Amino acid sequence: MLCVALRTGERGMSAGDFDYESHGQGYAVQRRTDPRIAAQVHAALGEGRSLINVGAGAGSYEPEDRYVVAVEPSAAMRAQRPATRVPALNATAEDLPFDDGAFDAALASITVHQWKDRERGLRELRRVSRGPVVVMTFDGTALDLLWLGEYAPELFAVESPRYPDIDWIAARVGGTVRVETVAIPIDCVDGFTEAYYARPERLLDPLVRKSQSAWGFVDDADEVRAVERLRADLESGAWDARFGHLRSQPEFLGSLRLIIGLP
Questions:
Q1: In this structure, are strands 67-71 and 88-89 parallel, antiparallel, or unpaired?
Q2: Is the whole model's pTM more than 0.85, yes or no?
């Protein structure tokens, strides 16, 4: 039996390292579910009929063929969930208001790095799932596989330490764990930075960058310099001279990982 008594948070207070109340608008448009990534995520979740999605945001990667409980502490993000998704509960990863083993599976999609107490949050995921715990995250040691680091080194300098070590996460989500690299398709519709490995012009758009929390940790002046360097290299052809082969590369194996932990 599910315990659904909710802890109410203070409106406007951030539950993690990024203020989605002030800067979270536009995620539902820019950060959509990519169906090819979703297929890998859903396969990792297994065939259980109930799922808790923690740090659920606007609902990306939630399967539609099972019972889902979504948990999201940001009111701004909860408001962006489409009508086809279940309303999200106001709670945090560190304090899930559910009984032990309440769900067949648990999902945390590109969210663990933003939690205040990552260890407690991961242990909560494991506690409430009687089956798989699936964490989609980035490997901070592999961010430099993307060419963007040459234009915005400040971005990667602040972004890399945000991501917990993959092995560290694995040790907290299951007794048996496997890690999968997630291939990023050339026309990926989930607008994280690596999604534009073959479409560099998209990163010139401030609305695209606004939906990538990493830019919120970069000084405005550094962001302007990075964007103008990229713009200049695109106009001169220098980017294509070095990286133009990526424009026809069907997928990119970058830093995106799935960590699947079983009890």
A1: parallel
A2: yes
| Contact yes or no for 60/33 (Cβ under 8 A) | yes
Confidence band, pLDDT 50/70/90 cuts, at residue 198: very high
Over 50: is that where the pLDDT of 10 sits?
no
Tens digit of pLDDT for each residue in 50-80?
999 999 998 999 999 999 999 999 998 899 8
24-39: pLDDT as tens digits: 455 556 778 999 999 9
What pLDDT shows up at residue 26?
56
What CATH code is assigned to 20-262?
A: 3.40.50.150
Closest CA to 81 of 10, 27, 14, 134: 27
Domain boundaries, the chain: 20-262
Can you say whether residue 55 is alpha, beta or left, with left for phi > 0 and alpha for psi between -120 and 50 degrees?
left
> Per residue, what are the HEC states of the chain?
CCCCCCCCCCCCCCCECCCHHHHCCCHHHHECCCHHHHHHHHHHHCCCCEEEEECCCCCCCCCCCCEEEEECCCHHHHHCCCCCCCCEECCCHHHCCCCCCCECEEEEECCHHHECCHHHHHHHHHHHECCCEEEEEECHHHHHHCHHHHCCHHHHHHHHHHCCCHHHHHHHHCCEEEEEECCEECCCCECCHHHHCCCHHHHHCHHHHHCCHHHHHCCHHHHHHHHHHHHHHHHHCHHHHHHHHHHHCCEECCCEEEEEEEC
